[in-house]
Amino acid sequence: MNESRKTPLVLVILLICIFLPTFAAVPFPQQDSTLVIKDVLIQTSAAYLWLSPVIHVATVVLLIALYRYGSKIGRVADAFFGILFLFFAFSNHIAVTENYGLTVITSNLVPISIVGLFWMWEVYRPHNEYTFERLPAWRYWVLPFVFLAFWSPINASLSPDFNPLLLLTSSFGVMYCPTTPLIIAILTLIYPKVNMLVLRTTSLVGLVIGLFNTMSFFIMPGYTLWNLILHTPLIFISAYGLLIPILVKKNVPLETLQKEK
């Protein structure tokens, strides 16, 4: 299928998947969906925190290596990100809860899995060129938001917690929402030398999940304003990932744009 037709089709499929229903062993009325999702996320957000320091350190090492060696380790970076997305899909969205038994949030699991598979395909046929050239200053606006997501200064009651130790032990690396901004930001910093399908699918799913979190502030009991603020990196950077071909088009050589098509 022609690339110009394949990408919109994939994006439409992802949007449809995001509206898949949540399944649980114990039947529940549809209006209780937010409570079911809350139960799953409370359980899964704590289940893998023991992995957090390892992934924090591995991410920093990878970023340093990418800056130093670039595309020589591009496939390592692609595989690392692909594995993370597949990990998020299943670890964050499947749980055995006390109230609902085995529960699966398919509306997140399926699209994030698809994104992870696209990243794994990128490992097989790489298009991302991790060469970090000097960019216009405005294109580095993502970095403070990436740092906020990496730190994720929040405690179990969803209140602010600026403990520096969270730079090593936060939910970054084990939860989808704080980790995805960094991955998309990296792609925006190497744009236009990126796999556009990977950038668009990753950004679309990130934006929709981020916007659903915005809705959760109004409909999910216990969802705090601070938790909403910590989802702004996911929302802003995902939107930027979708819009970057428009925003930086004037700076992209014609030859590169023709290759994208």
Q: Nutshell version of this structure?
A:
The protein is mostly helical. Helices cover 64% and strands 4% of the residues.
Give the strand tally.
Answer: 3
Radius of gyration: 18 Å
Largest sheet: 3 strands, antiparallel
Q: Which sequence of SSEs, written as H and E, runs from N to C?
A: HEHHHEEHHHHHHHH
Distance between the termini: 13 Å
The helical percent reads: 55-70%
Number of helices: 12
Structural classification? mainly alpha
Mean pLDDT: 92
Description:
The radius of gyration is 18 Å and the shape is globular. It contains twelve helices and three strands, in the order αβαααββαααααααα. A hairpin with a 3-residue loop joins β2 (94-97) and β3. Strands 1-3-2 form a three-stranded antiparallel β-sheet. By secondary structure, it is mainly alpha-helical.
